[in-house]
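BUG: 3D viewer hangs when loading the predicted structure for this chain

Environment: internal workstation, default settings.
Expected: structure renders.
Actual: progress bar stalls at 90%.

Input used:
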Amino acid sequence: MQTNAQSSQSTQTPFDIEPLSELMGAAITGLDLTQPLNQATRDAVFKAFLKYQLLAFRDQNLTKDQQVAFSEQFGELERHTLRNRNAAGHPSVHIVSNLGEDGKPSGKVNSTEWHSDKSFRPAPSMATILHAVNLPPDGGDTCFANMYAAYEALSEDEKRDLAGVQVVHSWELSRENRKRTVSQAEIDDAPPHSHPLARVHPDTGRSALFMGTHASHLEGLPMEEGRTRIEALEAHATQECFVYHHNWRAGEVLMWDNRCLLHRADTNFDAARHPRLLHRTCLRGIPTA
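Structure tokens produced before the viewer hung:
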């Protein structure tokens, strides 16, 4: 039987790959992300990214500038919305944390709903890169749902019903659902956009469901009917059989494919006692077909 190390060597990757689950994900060791990747290594990382959808780079310690430099080797950075907590100095780095204005744990955990980052943009995010800076001693996981697998589990009749269906993604609606009214400037900065509900991945050609908390309604259907259909699909797509729970390690960097995964933060830690601080960059994708 071939070991993981032997498998890595046989494919001649300049790093070691260890699958994290049968569903998705792989741990990458043997790389220093503070250093530029040569072309062969960059291509091997991207190939693994497409194969596993989620990469966990172990034992990293990146400054914000170094995270930006690593991210830009794979595409163009996407800025956050107008209310970026870290706009000064590093507008492309978004701070993900449970810390309040006083720098202490607030007890609140954001991004607990299933979503795909920047799905409300005309060119939704290709990838998110998230670097663990300060983690709770236990918990604080990030959960991922595989939209390839969720789509492929549908019946052929259900797949035919989804063909050509467009879903409107709205930053405004997703904020209202969290009881926050957005300003007109925020609406103008991130207006709603429609995308295929069954989206063809531009790099793999595989179909995946494309929805999440930013998904507002379906074009051509009454709002209530469209939302009911979206909610039923999300309930199907986020069953445990399609979900991987990632337990973070100190210094870890995750890179995942927003085009075929949904994700959310887990509240399985004491957010009023322990800080959870991560730095996020997002790579811009291409307009959906």
